[in-house]
Amino acid sequence: MVSVTPLISSLSSASLLHVAVIMDGNGRWARSRGMPRTFGHREGMKAVNRVVDCASQLGITHLTMFGFSSENWSRPKEEISELMNILRYYLQREVIGLHKNNVCIRMLGDRDRMTADIVSLINKAEQLTARNTGLSLNIALSYGGRCEITKAVRRIANAVADGKLSPSAIDNDIINSSLDTKGIPDPDLLIRTSGEHRISNFLLWQIAYAELVFTDVLWPDFGKRHLIKALEEFSRRCRRYGQTTT
How many domains are there within the chain? Predict the structure, then answer.
């Protein structure tokens, strides 16, 4: 068993630790077992619960999980329907437990394409947990990094057109405050499962200086020991932010 406290204390001198996760491999996990993709998605939700619990135990302050991309809407209707049913189940059954564990829930992404009942459940989950001071759990749904940046540019352009903002005043802080992740610190570590080595339009602005860790483990198999292994790898990285080492 890995000793948790020394691991976390060695990761950073900062008080915040933000881990982002691209949860990939549900379909391949299911196919390898002769099961439909939807079976993999359901098993993937169990991995979500494991990682959320583990993140809280390890002292991670922010956890952002890529659940459903804006591009995923092009998948077969049957698969999308099942994914939405899983989301409903999670929002109806798991949120109370997360609230009891002091987890603060926030959804990132475009809600316009979701059904009214799901949007209502999302709103209720955010309102219920808004004052919680434990793990900040951000779930990206119907989310795309380019779309997020485009919307931010549009908001800023409208503010300039309305005379509320001078073009010369536009800086990183203005852009940050116009993104879905307003108020959330940038990720320190990005993990992608299933052996793929790409970002897939996730948090494109925010991961400018994140450390990237890729693992061959398929998401439904991902658990505490895999998260700890990724954190151990992260702890060995030298983060220079464009500067030289001294």
Answer: 1
77 within domain boundaries: yes
Structural domain of 85: 4-144+189-235
What would the pLDDT profile of 121-168 be if each residue is shown by its tens digit? 999 999 999 999 999 999 999 999 999 999 999 999 999 999 999 999
- CATH code at position 224: 3.40.1180.10
For residue 202, being part of any structural domain is answered with yes
Taking the CA atoms of residue 74, residue 76, residue 81 and residue 86 in that order, the dihedral angle to the nearest 10 degrees is -90
- Among 53, 72, 85, 132, the active-site one is 72
Q: Does residue 72 have an active-site annotation?
A: yes
Question: Which residues make up each annotated binding site for Mg(2+)?
Answer: 24, 211
Does the pTM exceed 0.85? Answer: yes
